[in-house]
Design goal:
6-stranded antiparallel barrel
Length: 445
Amino acid sequence: MKASFSSQLPALTRFDPYRLHGTVAAAAGLRLVVEGLAPWLQLGARLELEAAGRPPVPAEVVGFEAGRATALAFSPLEGIGPGTRASLAPAAALPVAESWLGRVIDPLGRPIDGRGPLAPGAQPRPLRAPPPEAGTRARLGPRLDLGVRALDAFATCRRGQRLGLFAASGVGKSTLLSMLAAGADCDVAVLALVGERGRELREFLEEDLGPAGLARSTVICATSDSPPLMRREAAYAALAVAEHFAESGRQVLLLMDSVTRFALALREIGLAAGEPPVTRGYTPGVFAELPRLLERAGPRAEGCPGAITGLFTVLVEGDDHDEPVADAVRGILDGHVVLDRAIGERGRYPAIDILRSLSRTVPGCLAPEEAALMRRARAILALHAEMADLVRLGAYRPGSDPAVDEAIRLVPRIEAMLAQGKGERGTVASAFAALAVALEDADAA
């Protein structure tokens, strides 16, 4: 019997593996209705649609109704019609490996940099994963040199911290991200470009990030013309890649641009799945998913030396910093940095508004003399902002208030210290040294 069975093995290997199949019954907009598979599916299950004249189209189950599954596709729906076969596919996972450093990939793990296939890792990582348990999660590490003086001195960051960069379009977010990717003190940088303009990818890689920055980075990109599932998946893929490197003991810098476009993709998915719009058209699922994504960044479980330091950009519409996504993200993260258009129009970049930016972990990472310098600089900037209109109109007479006179004298020096070119690098120590020089009395200098 044993010999007889062994003799049949070559014939058995020629059979296709067992797969479950259904069919597309209806389509409307982004939404597909699949029948015949509902008893074997769950939310988030992956399907493959056998479209005519093109490779199989991946899709995801986002809902159920009356024994049918609602699915959305990861690519355009050309070639898909009634009766198109839908097959149950393996769960989503990314085989992250060391060879992914220096590469640009799409959210499904496919290279888009024209440099050939990626060498897969031994164990694929799920795209969705829970954060470490709160009770066993490590505490934040020592302070981190971000390389940007305005952040190092006024929003000092610790390893494993999560900061939000809040700005309207065209205020320098991408340039600031490139400065962080190239200059921050980290082992690995993971960049998630969610909903970016397609023409900007190569400009960002070649001019902003540069060969040295790219060599220690993995870039995940889903352009603005990608279906909403791809834009959403870019954020999940970036977290999966960052978790891989952090759990191998590396210090990872995660840069995501932007959380707003991730939320917009979630809104499109939710509306297509039948969720009701609540706040400015956003569905309830958006505000449930944001903390699940953002909490994955940070320190790992106790005993793991690696950590994910996350900087997430938030695109505020019409300079409204209280819009729903910005408000929700600000409450989840460990600090926020505000980029102001008026500061950029004055010619000072990065256009960071010091008075509206803060890091919630500053008390635990500054020496007493550094904290005193920062408080004094903030007080001077605040007084100058309060008196600026009177000074501009000539209503303030020099000598009337020594504190105002000091602010008028020192603020230009602080502003000069905050200005930084794209190629400049620094540390927290050098940022405070420059701030101390700027706060020296101008008359004494």
